[in-house]
Amino acid sequence: MPSLLTLPVHDVLPGTPRSRIVRLSLEGRAFPFEAGQAVMAGAHGSRARKPYSIACGPETVEAQGWIELLMQVERDDSVGAHLPRLRVGERVDVEGPLGTFTCPGRPAEHRFLFVAGGTGIAPLRAMIQHVMALGRKDEIAVLYSARTPDEFAFHDELVAEAEAGRLRVSFTVTRDDPTAWRGGRGRIGRAHLEDLVTSPETLCFLCGPPALVNEVAPLLGELGIAPARIRAEQWTAAGA
Question: Per the domain annotation, does 239 fall within a domain?
């Protein structure tokens, strides 16, 4: 059942040029939730709140003592009227956990594909951390789409996990980019997925703009993934 907590901002870290990773200290409290769930967050005492996926797994939260939220910011570095001051020590009202887009506590599957668009990486990061924390020899693949190379949140972390052999990761940008980007280009298509789907028993999680989710789900079906193994959540522009 959702609860209401008031938590201080422990840290504010860069995510992308248009987002920040906000750590809220639990101050020793337990906060049970399922990987993929979200909270409603807003300034202490305000009725205005917005939903944010918890961007780290339950095991990570228990170990580090804070939850992480990926928050979009405006050009002036503000979050919005619901949280006008985003700074260390600011107290934030948090209601949750909420949502049914979750990864099972101990999945029967041992192959996973996580497909993210933009800030849709937040709940998928929590799921990835959760699966890795199970300590099994699972196959984990990540396909991440963003408009430009600087919009990949948690890019270095994902690359480090890939280099350590804990997962496979593929990035693709959807806008013309004049930089020396050497990763993938274009909207996610069948070719992107064929490189990462190794078995019809893969459990797939999709999170991103409606267009991405609506296009990728049928492609997974063409590759032999049953609908029951495709779980999706659509982000709107204000949903992150």
Answer: no
